[in-house]
Each structure stands twice: as structure tokens, then as C-alpha cells.
């Protein structure tokens, strides 16, 4: 949400995910494998009979006008009709979760169409990560997760947890529906691109005396298709005779049930006690990123309904002290806590907590308790961790948001912080649940989510934010004064744009330097604008992105957005003209 993501739009992409589970026991109603694809082909030869099926029950809870005769909705219906294999596979993947999500939507008396939203977001894959850091069935961004109290740490990512993510997503959708005065089309559009994007589009139309309904708004291309995709899918589900798409049968009964374990537990133990595979317990509980549940909670597990009784009987027999497997390690000469943690697939913070260590220092001969998973679970965890790292901020060159913890100083205000970090006051309030609070207390720690492309440096003073800059790697004989002379700037400017309190630098350090002549110089050509560059008019081509354009002209995405008055939630489109200031 509030982002542009790479969505799975081809069966081949789904098969990549399925291949990682090859050889593992799947859901009873779970993910498609090679065998189930064969079953799908057989099922496709005749329509599915909806006797005792969840599909018609979902359809009876639809409340929105699907606008099925709208050309954009019709285009999406045709797409689904021509990609029935993809639709079948996606629905089969959704089968373990749909009844639970349907129940949550009904409890809140929300439109039944929302049950279908994860199809559009993630193809109902709870392990899905977008290219900007959104995660889970509902593709929740980190900032939104924080605002709605969804926990994320080394052990656990609540955005992938079926319970936590569904609760947060429905809270967010309810908030958006209220924000847009009961207009679900606008709320759903805002779920995709952000309420600011939709609100700005409404305001633009209102100023020009144009209609302000969803169909009349100029929105990012993805959002313009987002609502029709959902309406088209709902139309197909509601009219199986008119649109005879072959869907897998979904039982009109719960498939999973939530069990509160009450303490940390090794997932391999839990799987064995329930009589299911470790692969299945991970797929039903994708919020847990390690070999065990989070030691500080949550402690809930989702299990197949028919396995809950067996699990609870076995759990009652197992003392809490035996729910996690540990090993004892005697510290040898040369050992460090970091190396031990790495070898044991854990973290130094966890080892310190378990062993009551005040720091990372360890003594030769001392004994450490180390949590340990089973061999099969460990190998599965490695795959899951690799998948996680590949799509999150663990990899520094990926785009996406990053959490900054800012300690409030006496001179700080919400407005100065918003200006400094290039975010909105309303976002800071939302992330930190400040309500209408105006004044900040010194020493308070605030969460601020910032664009990934600015992670490598601290944030510059407002005066220099839009000065074109470049990165410079400090060499052995460099001083800040020498670098300032080389780039025709001042030591003070370098300190400001790098948020440095002194002049200390070290070889290999990467700092920001102005791309052209500094603010102190008045030697500008008549071709140079107040932005310190030659103005270029560029027409966006098909396949362009701000990142690609910025790389071509040697400018930052932030500058492109600033020069063209684009918010972070707005996207460019072919034919659009951009202003660029070249050096």
C-alpha cells in the first residue's frame, strides 16, 4: 500500500515460489505443486459445482456496485477469462486463508469484496515482498504497519502474520473509508497509492469544476487499474454462469484455527506435535522468520483445524522448559559473540538476553546457552531467511523505506522534523500515534520512515536539500578542507549537507559533495538557473522510471520530484514532460 510494487502477473512467477517447496508436504487445501497442476488441468475440463462451497457465500456478502459494464472493468474481466490457469492457481494458493479472512470481514460488517483484495495485492502469497518493502498477503508497508501497531523484529514480521496483517489491513481500509466519507472506490484506490495521492487528485478536479468520483480522477496507472481489477474479480465470482471460470472448491468451513501456545516454542516441535510438516507450519505461520516463535510474543500459531486437538494434548505433556531446543557452548580462545551468533543462526542481542550478558564481551571458559533448531528446520529456515533478505532492507542497494529513530531535542518541532526528513507532519503523528499533539518532549524517541535512496547519509539542512549532489569516497590523504577546495565549496557546506558536527573523516568513508559550484560562488553562466544547472525539458517514454532518468542525467530522484512537484506517491507516465537541471 502507498507504493508501486512488482506484482505476480504470470503463472511462471508463481511456479518459482512453488518450486521452493518441492519435496515438502503442502497444505491439504494448500499451494499448487506439479501434481496439483495436473489436477487443475483435469478440473478445468468441467465447471466447479459450488455445493458446500465458500465462493457463493462470499458472493452473497458483496455490497459494492461492480460497474461490470464499465470498459475498464470489462477489460479486466477479459484478462481473467484469458488467464484462467493463473486464476485457478492463485485461488488454490488462497485456500488455507480465505475462510479466516472472510470471517474477519464479516465480523466488521465490511464489503465482501475485500476478501478478494489479497488476490490483487500478493496473489494470496503471505511470503510475498514487493520491490519497495511491502510484505504479506495485504502488502503492508513498514510505516503503515508501525502506525497500526504491527510488530516487526529479528524473530517476527507481523506483516506476514495472517492474524496481525489482516487486522491491520482491515483497520486501515476502515480508516480510509471514513476518510473518504463512505466511498469505498476511493478508499480502495487509496489503499494502493496512498490517501494523499487520491485526495490531491480530488482537489485538482474540484478546482477545475470536474467530477471527483473515482472514474474521473487522474491517478497513477496502477491505481487506475487496481479498482477495476477487484471489481472484475468480484463480478466473475458473483456470476459463475455468465463467466464460467474454473475455480478450485473451497469448503464453507474453517481450515485453520488459532492456538495460543503461551510461550516461545520451537516450530519443529510444534509441527511434530500437530502431526504436520515443518514446511506446512511455516506456510501457515509465515510471520515467524526464525526456527522458533518470538521469545517476547506473540505466541499464537495457526494450525489445520483437524490437528488442533492432537497438538493441544501433546503440548500439555511438554514442559515449557522443553519447548525450545538449546545447546551449551563453552567459550574457547578466539571466540566472539558475533561469530557464535552467526554460526548458530541467531543474533548477538538474543544471546545477550538469554545469557544475561551486559555487553558483547565473553570470557574464555564461560558457558553460553544457544537456541538450536533441528537439522531439517534449520535448512528450511535458511531458505526462508534468504528469501527475506533478498526483498528487504537487509540488502543496502534495494529501494524502500528505512526506520529512523530520532531522539527529540529541545529545539525540535513536528514541522522542523518533517522538513528535515522530507516527510509529512501527519505521517509523523500517524507513525508515533501522537494524535493532535503539537509539542514534543525532549528525549522522546520518534519513529520516522524515510526513502531508501537517502539511507547512506544523514539528512541535510533544508537550505541545501535540493542542491544537486553526488557521492565521494574519501581517500587516504583527504581532509575535509581539501575536498571542499576540489569541489569549489566550503567546509561548512560539507558539514551541513552531511550533518557533521566536526571535520573528522576517514579513508573509505562516503560523503555527499555538491555537484557544481557552491552557494558561495556567484560565477554562474546565463544558462544556469537558480537550481544551478542547465534546464532540460524531457518527455517521458514508455518503460521510463524516475530512477532510470535520474541515472541517465546524473541527478537524484528527490531532485526530479522537487523540480516537477511530484510527491513520493505520484508516478510518471509516457508523454509526461519533466524539467531537469543538468550540470
Number of domains: 5
Q: Please describe the biggest sheet, giving its number of strands, its sense, and whether it closes into a barrel.
A: 2 strands, antiparallel
Query: Structural class, from helix and strand content?
Result: mainly alpha
- Reported CATH architecture of the largest domain: Orthogonal Bundle
Number of strands: 10
Alpha plus pi helix count: 23
Q: Order of strands side by side in the largest beta sheet?
A: 1-2
Average predicted local confidence, pLDDT? 76
Proportion in β-strands:
5-15%
The shape is flat
CATH class of the largest domain: Mainly Alpha
**CATH T-level fold name of the largest domain:** Lysozyme
Percent helix among the residues? 40-55%
Rg from alpha-carbon coordinates: 27 Å
CA(first)-CA(last) distance? 36 Å
Low-confidence stretches: 2-51, 374-400, 452-466, 516-532
Counting copies of identical and different chains, the oligomeric state is single chain
